[in-house]
């Protein structure tokens, strides 16, 4: 039972961290494109 609960929690943390990483990457790309636009 405890192992099952631990498994679910770890899975949720993994999924949320992946989503966070995707969002951070998008924000980074947005910032880079803005800098490029400012240079142009």
TrEMBL record:
<keyword id="KW-0934">Plastid</keyword>
<protein>
    <submittedName>
        <fullName>Uncharacterized protein</fullName>
    </submittedName>
</protein>
<keyword id="KW-0150">Chloroplast</keyword>
């Amino acid at each position: 039972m405890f192992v099952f609960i631990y498994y679910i929690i770890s899975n949720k943390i993994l999924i949320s961290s992946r989503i966070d990483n995707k969002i951070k990457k998008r924000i980074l790309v947005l910032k880079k494109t803005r800098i490029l636009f400012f240079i142009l």
